[in-house]
Amino acid sequence: MNKDLTVGKPETVLWKFCLPLFGSILFQQLYNIADSLVAGKCIGENALAAVGNSYEITLIFIAFAFGCNIGCSVIVSQFFGAKNYRDMKSSVYTTMSASAVLCAILMLFGILGSSQMLSWIHTPEDIFQDSQLYLDIYIWGLPFLFFYNIATGIFSALGDSKTPFYFLAFSSTSNILVDILFVSLFDMGVSGVAWATFLCQGISCVLAITVVMKRLSAIQTEGAVFFSWRLLGKIARIAVPSILQQSFISVGNIMIQGVINGFGAPVIAGYAAAVKLNNLVITSFTTLGNGISNYTAQNIGAGILPRIRAGFRAGVKMVWVICVPIILIYLLFGRILVGFFMNQPSEAALSSGTAFLWIVAPFYLIISVKLTADGILRGAGLMKAFMTATFTDLILRVMLALILAKEFGSTGIWCAWPIGWTTATVLSLYFYRNGPWKGSHQKII
Known about the structure:
Number of helices: 15
Radius of gyration: 21 Å
Distance between the termini: 25 Å
Shape: globular
């Protein structure tokens, strides 16, 4: 059901809208966690290292899909808030057309260059073949990844966060069962993990696109077009910076992965397990930030700027309520959680993964504030400010990882996260506090 986010108490509106988004991303992350869990438990430590190693490269493709999601979602939200349904529907069709072309290009690049990309990050020989196998199958599933993300972006733009949650709850649960079936019963190894994700993500995509098209057809309007260069420009103004931001983060993570790979398979496996747990949290906060972007965009479209400040305060309360128990769990049970990904974990794998969580987890309170502010900035179309803060985080993390690894080993790499996060949070808060809603009541489109 479509939901107008411009009415009602901001805190209540955001809780009702964002909680299903939070649930959705938890199920979305089950895809990757299930892959690593089954690989580590049912195949072995090297299989876990291979899946985790390939995952850093898949984040580049996810960055493009995420950018299409955000670009479409923000613009559709603004048109929905302004009750401009013709341009709203045209924006959806334009995004789908442009994304199909972009996806085809990325697939060609990935199919031809997967081996080279794995070589660039110094993938150890003992996990190279499995890493490439997983990556190749993942690339063939990119159309599902792209169009599912577009569909969820449209649902969110229309104020509906529950429908994608239902899809993901079903498909993610299925993914775990199919993972186990392909690996344990059919003995397909790493390829079974990859094909399970391919099939279940495909189911999510088909269901989501079918429902979103029916939802759009129910909105009566005339004059909608299937492609508009004008609207593509509006979408690209949001999508391209988001893609660049996510892509550079992925490239930075790949560079960091290359440094980690120099410490051997046990440390890679420990990091692979810990970073899955970390990404579960960060992706959850990013998704909540996306919900705040939709809230911001609808209210900007309607010209109700004071609700944006109230939305930020409500958003910070929401993410802190969620992250405090996560921090406690990671600090108290981090070693158990890391070991849960492996059948017979080595001490080096357990120690490296646990150290990562102990160093990084307390700073979730800080990074969650940044991601809330980023949601406001994206929803308002303030992409230069958004990118400045994000690139500062990335550059600091990469540089410090390279420097500190020489002095303190893998522990030095983990310390780069809190420093980058804290600096970037200060910048994001500065840009938010000086946004166009500061003391202004005029309409912005």
